[in-house]
Amino acid sequence: MVKLTMIARVTDGLPLAEGLDDGRDVPDSDFYKQQVKSLFKNLSRGQNEPSRMSIETGPYIFHYIIEGRVCYLTMCDRSYPKKLSFQYLEDLKNEFERAYGNQIETAARPYAFIKFDTFIQKTKKLYQDTRTQRNIAKLNDELYEVHQIMTRNVQEVLGVGEKLDQVSQMSSRLTSESRIYADKAKDLNRQALIRKWAPVAVVLGVVFLLFWVRKKFW
Amino acid sequence: MGTENPNPPSYPVRPAATPFAAMQSTPPFLSSGPVAGSESSSFRPVPPASSQFRAPPFSSGPVVGSEVPAFRPPPSGRSNELVGPPPSSSSSSSHGPPAAGFQRFPTPSLPSVGHAVPQRTGQPVLSPTTRPAAGTVASPPISLLSQPQPPSIPMGSPPPSMKTGQVNGNIPPPAHQLLSSSRPNVQPSSPPVRPSYVTTPGISQATIPGYVNAQPNTVAQAQPMQPASFTLQQRGYAPGAPPTPFLAQQRSVNPPSLYSGNQMQHHVVAPPTATSPGLAEDFSSLSLGSVPGSFNAGIDNAALPRPLDGDVEPKSLAEMYPMNCSSRSLRLTTSGIPSSMSLASRWHLPLGAIVCPLAEPPAGEEVPIVNFVTTGIIRCKRCRTYVNPFVSFTDNGRKWKCNICSILNDVPGDYFAHVDASGRRVDLDQRPELTQGTIEFIAPAEYMVRPPMPPLYFFLIDVSISAVKSGMIEVMAQTIKSCLDSLPGYPRTQIGFITYDSTIHFYNMKSSLMQPQMMVVSDLDDVFIPLPDDLLVNLSESRNVVDAFLDSLPSMFQDNTNVESALGSALKAAFTVMRQLGGKLLIFQNTLPSLGVGRLRLRGDDIRVYGTDKEPASRAPEDPFYKQMAADLTKYQIAVNIYAFSDKYTDIASLGTLAKYTGGQVYYYPSFQASIHKDKLRHELTRDLTRETAWEAVMRIRCSKGVRFTNYHGNFMLRSTDLLALPAVDCDKAYAAQLSLEETLLTMQTVYFQVALLYTSSSGERRIRVHTAAAPVVADLGEMYRLADTGAIISLLSRLAIEKSLSHKLEDTRNAVQLRIVKTLREYRNLYAVQHRLSGKMIYPESLKFLPLYGLALCKSLPLRGGYADAQIDERCAAGYTMMALPVKKLLKLLYPNLVRVDYSVVNLSPQTDESNIIRKRLPLTADCLDTRGLYIFDDGFRFIIWFGRSISPDVVRNLVGEDFTGDYSKVSLSPRDNEMSRKLMKILDKFRESDPSYYQLCHLVRQADQPREGFFLLGNLVDDQNGGANSYADWILQLHRQIQQNT
User: Which residues in chain B have Cβ-Cβ distances shorter than 8 Å to A21?
Assistant: First the structure.
């Protein structure tokens, strides 16, 4: 059963619509909404995520599809059929594109299409019960190859950004370290040079000095 | 000089204009035309210097330079009063010796000034009499600027006994010495540019370029003076503005007029004692008979000041700071903020502001909307102030300085714009947030805890027998049905209903149903919701079901004989249904809640408790359940509006707390009868449902360091020390806040206020409405008095008094109000009277001339009047709750209603009678004004009382009322009839109603000498008369006067 529905623009993570009174029976819905928001933020950073994915989080599971630079995401119980969730998202997508398709890029404020929540509400009710005739029929239709949709854990997904950060941090550290190394190497080189020629120079100097002294006093 | 000023009525009203008028009286300079012309040319460079004004564009600008008559733009009594008179004397001093001045000051700037002056004089001379005077007085060139202030001259209709300037003219007000001593070089010997005249900087600025070209001779000279004067002003208000060369040369010109160049004139320098007899007197006085004991001696009832023009807002602040938000949204009780705590403690009136965040702009104006979603809203990093017209940009536009905490903030890259030489941003004209005092930002996602909620209306309807009998249900159902199309927020609007008597009835409104399903829950102690969804439905989807429900509602319960009412339990049920979304909950209550939680006792109104310590308890809420409930409701963004209809005791005091703490409103219809009150309920419910409402709002008022808003009054819940939670706000609600000083001495010269309201509009946008205003800090009590705003003071005072009446006796409350007024006037008297030896007179500042009357009206208002017999306890409480939320103008109208005579215009059958004329002819509220042959309308904004004189022609009555005009008027309602008179009257009434749409004014017909009806409706409300043991206006003034004189 659908707990939460959110629609956001992928390019900048701007929320466009959200289901009405979402999360009514989810105890800590705010926590999950927060997760969804950081997920959107990750997506907007342009990592190449597959256009369909399921992400496990606690007792629930997020499903999302990305189409036309808009991400449609829903949160369901784990037991809820994956096929139905994606069918639900597909319904939302069709209606959303029909109604607002041309305004998506120009939307300037958050929740610009909040009016869509009534449709979300309506559609959600249709998918409430998995055993209605309509839904069973949908389940039987092989509309999507949902088995191939990747399932990952939310920590992993949210962690990706973190890891990348780490890598970039490491690489930047590497650059600075190597620069230091280069400096030091140059320094060493010079020292080696000095060490190599210094005795010879000193001997020559002494010899010349002697010559000079001899010339002077004789 | 000032006194003999021959033409008071022709005073140009706008201060800016005054110099011109005055200058016309000095002829000697007519000849200097050519010189002036050359001067003028040298002055052209000035304008740019003056360009620091950030809001130059004032359409009225060009007018300034032209002819005198054109100078009277918006007639503002107050500013006029402030500045009006001086020109005569100043003209004498400054222009009298113009030649001398000219030669003595060869610097280019000064002469020009000298010239400017005479030049204007070249225009038609106003009155010959002033001329010689000007000449004579002129001889002492140093006798500068004595600023007389005959206050009452310009005011609407000056009462005969009001003293105008001359009486004590030659004694300068004390502040004067104070000032001059503190600033040694105040006494300039230069001729005179009186900076103070030009109050509206924008005006002169705008004119300059155009005029130089257009009218080189006459006008060009006028200008040099103006820029000077307002640069000066500018310096006063915004220190740090680069001084213009012009300014520099004029250093001698009145530095003292630091704050309020325009208002301080009367303080300005050396009083030419002998030469100008009409010195300033900046107060009004009232002769009350020389001996306090002699009753009624010399008191002229008709001479007492009465606000017959309605609320006159002080204009001075708006002129001083043209970029301030409108006074509709923010009104300070005094625009002069005291500079020290000791000064504040001498100001005995409340210090604070009345805020009406969503006040409707007049037709044609709109609040500009700015979208900052991409960059984020520009706010101060420390105090979180929103960017506003008063911030200054420095460092080539890379930083901006917060006007409230003066910290330097970085300007984000997207918002960067270059700054021109005078410190203005080059893109100023595209940035409404930098030029307008009121602005609306579209809030980015950070300002949302959840997606914007849809507008939601939930109805909780009492269907017990009294509701059915009174016909309330039918009217209500019809009204709601007719409003369904105009509810804001289509297509998201949500709606739901619960009815209750001794049980609670839920209605399933699922869109697929044909008829609503009713579910009855009779367990009141543990209310459960029979259905998870569909009790609250989307209106556009379930429209048919809702229609069907409203159609059948009246018939469903028509045979109901249940007398109980389980409000508390029904409230809990509604709360459970609504808590996910929030919204507006409308409760229609007909009887005292008698079952379940929150049942209320029949406390009644006992005559024996009056005058004892138990008295206030009957006005205070009894059961804490309602307050607790209100706290929960607010937390979930639910606002409650109470509609109460009962003819018996309903304990509005307790029920009203629901509305009070959730930002709602109480509507009370005592003894509701559908046949009589139908229109009223219909209109008010319609307005409640369809007016533009702001949802899930929070409001905060920020102000400069050193001052702080401490107490808030109105209908809201305080979420933290200064955050007001307002589940629903609309244009009919105002909030009051009290200001206190945190530092013993304020160092800045201007205090800024910023009101920010974050809300969700009905269309589902999250927005922030920001009002910004500036007010000068003053170091002088007289200045505070001068800048006082009676409307705001009374508004705040009445809220304080009503709150006090919940914990104190009525008598004590009234005395407290009186004491405050007495202290105020006594303080004022101490300020001026001693020097003036005005022992027998009562003196008061012009700005507060209506204060005593409004104070009296407040004491006679419904919540505070009399004792047991004077008002029903429920009416008292309901009026109290209503007055706590009223905006200033409506409150003043309620306190001092309009009384107009209409029989002439009704009887006079010529079709082109001008209705608007009638409205202007307001009469004092005293029975003496009622002519037995007349027909009068008494309009307090909530009802009309139409009074028929005893000897009015029966024809008129028959035409208006119908055949049964001799019957009982309590059963007669005024309806349009098919004759000219009735149509006329209706037209007048409609006109009145149009001007005040927030409530419906029901007509009550009253015949003269039809007691007790007449006494109840009209005579008891005539504020100026003695009624019910309360003083008449004249007695009140005498009493105040006597108390003021004690201990002085």
Answer: 580-581
Q: Is residue B164 part of a domain?
A: no
CATH (domain of B868): 1.20.120.730
pLDDT for the residue B260: 36
Q: For B237-281, write each residue's pLDDT tens digit.
A: 433 334 343 433 333 333 333 333 333 333 333 333 333 333 334
* Spatial contact of B126 and B10, defined as CB atoms under 8 Å apart: yes
Q: How far apart are the C-alpha atoms of B858 and B852, rounded to whole Å?
A: 10
Segment B160-219, tens digit of pLDDT? 333 333 334 344 344 343 333 334 343 444 444 443 343 334 333 333 333 433 333 433
| Per-residue pLDDT at B487 exceeds 80 | yes
Q: Residues 6 or more apart from B698 whose CB is under 8 A from it?
A: B719, B723, B724, B725, B726, B757, B758, B759
Q: What is the residue range of B830's domain?
A: 791-896+1032-1047
Lowest-pLDDT choice from B543-557, B565-579, B656-670, B1030-1044? B1030-1044
Is the CB of A116 inside 8 Å of chain B's CB atoms? no
Looking at the structure, do residues B351 and B395 belong to the same domain, yes or no?
A: no
Could you tell me the two tokens for A47? 């990592």
ipTM: 0.73
How many residues are present in chain B?
Answer: 1048
Q: Tell me whether A125 touches chain B (CB under 8 Å).
A: yes
| Average pLDDT, integer, range B564-591 | 93
Q: Would residue B534 count as lying in a domain? A: yes
Give this prediction's pTM: 0.73
Q: Are residues B567 and B684 in the same domain?
A: yes
Q: Which CATH number goes with the domain that contains B580?
A: 3.40.50.410
Cα B367–Cα B444–Cα B457 angle in degrees, nearest 5:
70
In a domain, B380, yes or no: yes
In angstroms, the CA B53 to CA B57 distance is 9
- C-alpha separations of A119 from A66, A106, B359, B451 in Å: 19, 21, 34, 15
Sign of the Cα pseudo-torsion (A133, A138, A139, A140, in order):
positive
DSSP state at residue B303: G
The two tokens of residue B69 are: 């008559």
Q: Which residues of B touch A18 (CB under 8 A)?
A: 450-451
Same domain? B836 vs B882: yes
Distance from CA of B448 to the nearest CA of A (A): 9
> Helix, strand or coil for residue B399?
strand
Q: What is the CATH number of the domain that holds B389?
A: 2.30.30.380
CA neighbours closer than 13 Å in the CB half-sphere of residue B637: 21
Which CATH number characterizes residue B708's domain?
2.60.40.1670
Residue closest to B462 by CA, chosen among B578, B595, B618, B584: B595
Q: Which of B741, B769, B788 is the last residue of a domain?
A: B788
pLDDT-derived band at B378 (thresholds 50, 70, 90) equals very high
For domain A2-164, the CATH architecture is 2-Layer Sandwich (3.30)
pLDDT at B910: 58
CB B644 within 8 A of CB B650: yes
Give yes or no: residues B881 and B933 share one domain.
Answer: no
Do B451 and A14 lie within an 8 Å CB cutoff?
no
Chain B contacts of A114, Cβ < 8 Å? 451-452, 492, 764
Paired tokens of B428: 């100023």
CA nearest B863: which of B810, B907, B791? B810
B951 or B905, which is more confident? B951
Q: How many domains does chain B have?
A: 5
Instruction: Inform me whether the C-beta atom of residue B489 falls under 8 Å from chain A C-beta atoms.
Output: no
Spatial distance between the Cα atoms of B191 and B19, rounded to a whole number of angstroms: 14
Given a cut of 50, the residues of chain A with pLDDT beneath it are none
> What tens digit of pLDDT does each residue of B851-895 get?
999 999 999 999 998 878 788 889 999 999 999 999 999 999 999
B280 close to B175: Cβ distance less than 8 angstroms: no
